[in-house]
Amino acid sequence: MKRMTAYLISLCLFATCILPARAAEAGIIVPQDEVRKETGADAGQNGKTNDDMGMIGQVSSTGSPSVESASPATASPTSETTPGADVSPTSETTPGADVSPTPETTPGADVSPTPETTPGTDTSPTPEGAPGADITPSPAGTSEAQTSPSPAGSPSVESVPSAIPSGSPQAQTSPSPAASPGAESTPSATPTALASPSPTATPDMERQSLADEEWNNETPSENPGGGIEVIVRNTLPIERLSLKVTLEKDNNEVDGRSVELAKNPEKHAVFFDAESGDYRVKVSALGFITYEQEIAVAPGKIQTAEIHTGFVNLEGISYTEDGLHPGVMLIGDANGDGQIDENDKNAIMDAMSGIGNDGLTTDLNRDGKTDLVDLQYYANSRARIKENAVTASSLSGKIAPDAVQVNINGANTQAQGDLDALFSADAGSVKLQRAQGGIISQDTPVEIGFNLQSGEQEGVLVEQIEISMGESGAASGQLTVETEGGKKTIPFVDGRLESLSRMSSEPSGPGTGPLVVYLGKQVAIKKVSIRITKTGGDGTLAEITKVEFLNDMEKRIPEPDMNIPENLKAAGADKAFHLTWDPQVNVTGYEVEISYGGMTETVRTASNRLEVKSFNREKLVNEQSYEVRVRSVNGTWSSPYSDKVLAVPQIADRPDPPDNVKAVGGHRSVTMSWKKMEDTDFYNVFYKEAGTDAFQKIPNIGQNKYVITGLKDETLYEVYVTGVNDLGESNPSLHAEAKTITLKPAKMPNYKLLNESAGDGRVSAHIVSVTHGRGSMESSPLDQDSKSALGTVDKDFGSYYQILDWDDGAEYVAASKGLLFTLDDYYKMSYIAFAEPEDIASYGKVSVYYYDKENPDGVYAQNVSVTQRTDENGRKYYMIKLASPITANKIRLGFARGYGLRNITIAEVNFYHYDSLEDDILALYADDLHTTLRDDVTEATISELQKRLDTVDAKSGEYHPEREMLQRELDNARGILSSGLRDVIEISSAITAAKDGHLGFGGLNAWQPLGITAYEGERIVVYVGHNTLKTGSNSSLKLIATQYHAESGAFASDVGSLKVGRNEITIPSIQSLACEGGGALYIQYTGNNENDRYAVRVSGGVKEPVLNLYGVSDESKRKALILSYVKELEEHTASQKSLHEQVHEAAGEGNKVNREYEEQNCIIGATDIMLDRMLLSVSAQQILAGLGSGSSQERAQRLENSLQAMEDMMELFYQHKGLSDDASAPATDRMPAQHLNIRYMRMFAGAFMYASGNHIGIEWGSVPGLAGAAPVVSDENGKYISGNYFGWGISHEIGHNINQGSYAIAEVTNNYFAQLTRSRDSDDTVRFKYENVYEKVTSGTVGRPSNVFTHLAMYWQLHLAYDRDYNYKTYGSYQEQHDSLFYARVDSYSRNTALAPGGLTLGGDADQNIMRLACAAAQKDLTEFFTRWGLVPDGDTMSYAGQFPKEERAIYYLTDDARVYEMEHGVTGSVKDSNVIGADSSVTVNEKVPNEVTVSIQNPVSSDVILGYEISRYYYENGKPVRQVVGFSTQPVYRDHVTSLNNRVLTYEVTAVDKYGYRSKAGKIGDVRISHDGSYDKSLWTVTTNMASESDSKDTATEEDPCDPQTVSAIYRVIDNDYGNTYEGFTASSDAVVTLCTNQALAVCGLKYTVKSANAIGAYEIQVSMDGNNWTTVKTGAFEERKESQIVYFENSDRDPWVCTYDAAYVRIKALGQNHISIAELDLLGPAGDSVSFGVKENDTQGAVGILTKDYVYEAEGENSVIPAGSLIFTGSYKGNPAYNVVMLYDEEGAVVGGVDEDGVLIADQIILANVPENGLLGEVSDGIWIYWISPVDGQVPDLGGKIVRAQLYRMDNALTNEGQRLVSDTEPLRIPDKLDEITLVRDSDHGVVVQ
Fold it and tell me: Most buried in the list 32, 192, 1058, 1139, measured by CB within 10 Å?
């Protein structure tokens, strides 16, 4: 059965794919006497009109040379002919035409026509190559001598109509592609003809004649070698093709090369050196018949063969014996037997049917599969073989390098480089310079010559000379050609041969293009010499890169029109760029390829413009370069890519203020750093001394750091930073503070000092020696020994120890590291201090290795701590504290910093005698938490210790250095003794990150509040108790210090791990902003042991209000705790200011909290509320404000409600994430052990609130909202009754932090949670608009929606499709939750793919992951759903989804209301598979808006169950309908705006979709033909105005949209395609102005203005511009006073009566004298595309079909050029290009009208009638005629009466192979009458052909 299916497919393929190629060869007809003038098609910026048709040319039949006609009795020579030149015609002249000069021709000149001149020209022939032949100039714009086009407006001429079958030689020579009809444009590589004498040769140049060129007399070899050049091109869309090119002589291989061809038609040249003789060239590749061709090589000649992998269709190309054509490799040899036959077809069909094909090449196009495309390739080749197409290449020739001798005039010229390399295939480079040096000039030229004479040969026949220049090419000079007839000299100026030559392109500088000399025919050249008198560059070198002497110019293969997008331009925008390119009228869309950083992304678009805002799902980066190229697509066809351009997103605004500014004081300096900001070129730093007024500015700082120097010592400075770019300077950053430090030595304590000073620079007391290991001593006179370090104990901070490492024996201990101190005796000690010469950074760890009597070899001290202290001058020093005192005579100290700083410096080290006072005080306590005293402690004990603490050291006069801390201990002991003081925090071991490794998302933390705020630099003691661990043991607790009201980048510090017992802590500095430093303290449990029991108490700081409801489920207990907290909150906020004055303002001068009270920044204002899933760390004052007024009990109730709402909301969120506390839940679905943390924070630029790392930041004004929610009350099914959760913003940010990482998309998937809190199960409570959803899912576009809320709808619809309870439903068990919630399953499978059905695997792509996860959760194949949303499933996703049944519902249309309807009604009354589309439904085209189609739907069933209607349209391709969904409407009327198609017939179909998602049967409701005015798509336009409107708005960040929403302007309404939506504006100036920016260059010829209300524009002026600065007025006038669309067409400055087209990127309309106007819509008009219709009269099908009454001869001299009488004939008109168009007719079943024969060849014939322009180039035709006929067989034609037929117009790149074939226009169906009319075709002087 599979085999039979493949066979049938192959038959269909012959009928639908191959046959149009045959039809394309039927011919192009040239009607007589038809000259039409088109206006507006290509006038250009100057408003010139276009002459599309020009003069009529005569075209010959297949294989015959064609002839151009001229004016009735004249033919025009070129306009730049030299006076007196004798011009010789060629031998193919037709009698009867006189040749007259153009107005610019000098009188008396005889002018010769081209070899294809109209017969009868009065000329005298000259044999080609004969001695004395004059060299004739070529007109600009042509490649050989021919008659020139008549000026625009010249009279028409009569010509005999004839036909050119498509693919035969055309009526003109091979033109430059740049030549345009009726214009004197400069063509590409235009050759130059020679003439003598030159009218512009100066007397000076004549005096410097090259008559005596003896230096150019050296001749080439008498026996020059030759060669064979093989050019191969891949003209098939095969991705990569490996070829072998070999050369044989006498059946032996003499050379061979391998060539790799990519998927593009680039030429690849292979050159073989060859002596004279006969050779065979072979080209082979898998799947192709080996190409073979015999080539004869003559001495000194190179023969060139161009060979393609497929046939091409170009003007002048004919695959016949006499026709010009490239060689063709025939594809289709699947079995490799050297033939293309039935065996190959069978092999391909077997492979298509799944039958093995090992060893065969059935995948001909190398796309990884064998399919219809491969079968089509086979069929194409078979058809060519059957018709005996000639596949051997036409050969062209050029002169071999051996036949040319290069000579240099040694008298004045030196050459650099290989002279012979000038002729090589790779092209060498020769640089000429003056032999004497200096500038090349008129008086000091350089000369190079080429001698072609050898032996007895007096010259070599040459047709064209090309000399290519390098960057420093010849700018001016003269070129002399010597023939048997003498010498002819041509000057060249500015790199151009004067009057007789054109550059191949406009040069970028002098001499950068080639000099091309076309000789008109083959001329025997003896010598060529060049004298160069001026060059580019510095003027001293003239560079020549290649020289070619060419023949057979007429055999050059022209290039096809590939519809490659041109003029690709990129305009940068803010984190975006806009792409534009010239539209291609016969394509359906484009593919844009973007490359950056080694990665590539492809984006599809239907219009010729694209806005790009992201790359590989990441935002674009401003000022970075992205490579972009674009290609056209039409179905499966795609053009080659355009050239690449660079797209650079541009900064659009001044920078944001720099964030995270930090300042650190140094010696007379402040070191600053800040966040590196986007879009910032440099920074300005501002500073001032605190208390002064004026800031000093330091500009132009390139990095995000700076050191301010030259400051005062010990002075506080205030600093801030701004960012600067080209658009301006940012606002100031937040201000920071830093105090400079002095170089005075740090003052370490002298209390009980052991190594007392012996004087500066001398070793201190009791020190015997100090040695070091790896480092060195700096500036230390005491340390002459390399290992001595006595300078660390000399009391001189100028000498110090240094090692450039971060560790010196503290982290990685070793005997060779650190400092070893030897004392003069054993001393007992517990404290050691050290300081740096300069404060660099802190030390995090110190090791102490000591030697005592019990350990003579040494031992490490345990539980050593090091704390940083600050002296009265701000200098830092460090105290090393030993857990137990030691008695030692040697001590080795090791030091370590953090990893980032590799610089350890030690200036001085102090040792201290042991004092038991501290141990005696701490011994008062019986527990680690210091909450219980020993039994023997009395008041007397405490008093005695108090007395000792108040006593100074006798020697130093100092108190104990820990006096403040020890005083707290004594005060604490007194409190316990008198009242049993306890303030202990129990730490929960259930809150830990160690349990959350399964979640797949971050954003949580495990902090537990201690109820204490502490300021920066404050010393506190943290006591830790544990149920089993001993004092001094390492605990699983960390202390976290935070900054209150902080920036996101600097808000917390991990102070370090705590030990069981007493921990002395100095609160670190976290930020340097000019506000209080410090904040709340937290404990983080890092273990994972449920048996751990920790308690913590803090001594120091200020108590903050804390409400801890974690794990509290008892309702009465919760109420009591909340009430107590509210009362504490009330008391605390009331005393907050006075507490600040008491504590902070007494903290000491210079402390950051000792400043005036600021309610938003005072750290005492902090409060924490800990719930099961949430920690709120916010402002106490603002939480209280959110509770409103009333009693404490009333406030407590409000707080309870709000906190319960938070708990309920988090439960709802986590259930939708599939997380549960249920014991039955898998380990990977367990609830988080940590909590989310909402914190009071500072906002960065543009933010209203944010999610970052382990917290969510909100500002002052958002805190009260946390106390204002109420629990949502719902019924048992989750249907909303009352209550409200928190705003969109809070839920949005929570979503960021709990997004499942495998499929998370920022700003989209996180909104799912926000939508859950907002939705009330109705369409009007969702954040997105369903009409935008419908637009996306019916657009057929690939890629995510650009709007984040529309994108959210994709995820939301999956919830609607598979969840069958109301939104607020929560479930009592894990299994019920898993079974009932779609995303519970999605997230569960994401965390653990083993739980999913079918072997789920996930990768790194979020889109592929969500598609697979959704299929798993639904157990449905959802690929259609995701494809509708623009996602493209890869192979693995398709494979995984394929194991599930396809989802039959159209769930991409589902809405909230529809889901509720199903839940409440069940699936009753479904329209599934029912006929519900009424027969009286209709479709019409809006007469005033021709691309607007109105679909009116009649539905006999109840509308309650109908969700809406899917609107589809069919267009026809190869006779078959192709369905395209275009819209979805919830109303019975739909308006379709067709922008991507024109001149096409569309059949509309409507399918009803019910609220369950089921479809009815589709109903076709009618056909329409779209033919609109060429209005451009406006999707990427922008618009500005000088008017204001009441509809203007500017949004700011809010709770509902917290992420910096963009400003919305109302003027966009004039380009929104909503013709009923009116913009009304007003301005204070006299003229209202609206400016359209198209973000590209468009060819515009008109403007359409639509108005629906009053205040319409009256008098107007329309202007265009390319740059927005220079404007051209293109139309003035006044609109009529009517409320509808009005079109005005542009004109030129002379106001000529034709339409003018302008290139414009900006169009501006001024309402003259009006300051109040209204506009519904503005459109710009451009050219339209190809079109086809039945009947030769507009809107009339008369004569469209009938029987031909008598023979019609459509070509006077051609064979088989008659349509026989009795033929069934179809006629019609078309607009397009006959060289690339073909018309096909199909019946209603998709079969070709007329059928095919047994070989699959079309039985019918067709011809296309075309007007040939005056330059002979077949171009775009505005009004042509086509004829399609079936010839009678035995006097009979098929009876087609009653059949429906359609005409389809195709355009292709290669009409012979159908390469690039795409349908561009078709007709409405035509019913063939039962009785056919008789038709007579008659020539007509006005219309060419008339149907009678």
Answer: 192
Q: What is the largest CA-CA distance in the chain?
A: 143
What's the confidence (pLDDT) of residue 471?
79
Question: Pseudo-torsion of CA 193, 195, 199, 205, nearest 10°?
Answer: 100
Query: Beta 496-497 vs 589-596: how paired, if at all?
Result: unpaired
Q: Is 1108 helix (H, G, I), strand (E, B) or coil?
A: strand
Average pLDDT over residues 1141-1166: 91
Q: What integer pLDDT is reported at residue 1868 of this predicted model? A: 87
Mind listing the pLDDT tens digit for each residue in 111-123?
333 333 333 334 3
Query: Region 915-926: what's the mean pLDDT?
Result: 93
Overall average pLDDT of the 383-395 stretch:
89
Exposed e or buried b per residue across 1643-1677, where buried means at least 16 C-beta atoms within 10 angstroms of its C-beta: bbbbbbbbbbeebbbeebbbbbbeeeeebbebbee
The b/e string for 1213-1240 (b: 16+ C-beta within 10 A; e otherwise) is bbbbbbbbebeebbebbbbbbbbbbbbb
Tokens matching residue 1157: 């009270």
Among 508, 445, 509, smallest CA distance to 478 is for 445
Separation CA 1418–CA 1421 (nearest Å): 8
HSE, CB side, 13 Å, CA atoms: give it for residue 97.
28
pLDDT above 80 (res 436): yes
* β-sheet bridge partners, residue 1782: 1850
User: Taking a C-beta distance cutoff of 8 angstroms, is the pair 121, 72 a contact?
Assistant: no
Weakest-pLDDT range from 275-289, 579-593, 1670-1684: 579-593
Query: Is the separation of the CB atoms in 193 and 86 below 8 Å?
Result: no
Give CA–CA dist 1510/1476, Å, rounded.
Answer: 13
Do 94 and 120 contact (CB within 8 A), yes or no?
yes
- Residue 1109: the pLDDT is 97
The amino acid that residue 1469 corresponds to is G
Kindly report the pTM of this predicted structure.
0.62
pLDDT at 131: 36
Residues 6 or more apart from 1875 whose CB is under 8 A from it? 1841
Q: How far apart are CA 1623 and CA 1718, in angstroms?
A: 6
Least Cα distance to 1849 among 1768, 1784, 1755 occurs for 1784
* pLDDT confidence tier of residue 1810, bands split at 50, 70 and 90: low
The two tokens of residue 108 are 């008396």
Torsion, CA 613, CA 619, CA 625, CA 627, rounded to 10? -60
> How confident is residue 1393, by pLDDT bands cut at 50, 70 and 90?
very high
Helices 1406-1418/1382-1391 angle, 10° precision: 120
- Are 632 and 640 in contact by the 8 Å Cβ rule? The answer is no
| pLDDT at position 1178 | 98
Q: Is the peptide bond before 197 cis (omega within 30 degrees of 0)?
A: yes
The answer, yes or no, to whether residue 1605 has pLDDT greater than 80, is no
Element (H, E) at 256: strand 252-262
Give the three-state DSSP class for 686. strand
- Rounded average pLDDT over 513-527: 82
Torsion angle in degrees (nearest 10) through CA of 145, 150, 155, 159: 30
Using DSSP bridges, classify how beta strands 645-647 and 626-634 pair: parallel, antiparallel or unpaired: antiparallel
Angle between helices 1115-1139 and 1192-1216 (to 10 degrees): 120
Q: How many CB atoms lie within 10 A of CB 879?
A: 22
Question: Measured between alpha carbons, how far is 174 from 324 in angstroms, rounded to an integer?
Answer: 11
Least confident of 158-172, 723-737, 1267-1281: 158-172
Query: What are the beta bridge partners of residue 1080?
Result: 1013
Mean pLDDT calculated for residue range 159-186 = 34
Residues 661/679, Cβ–Cβ less than 8 Å: no
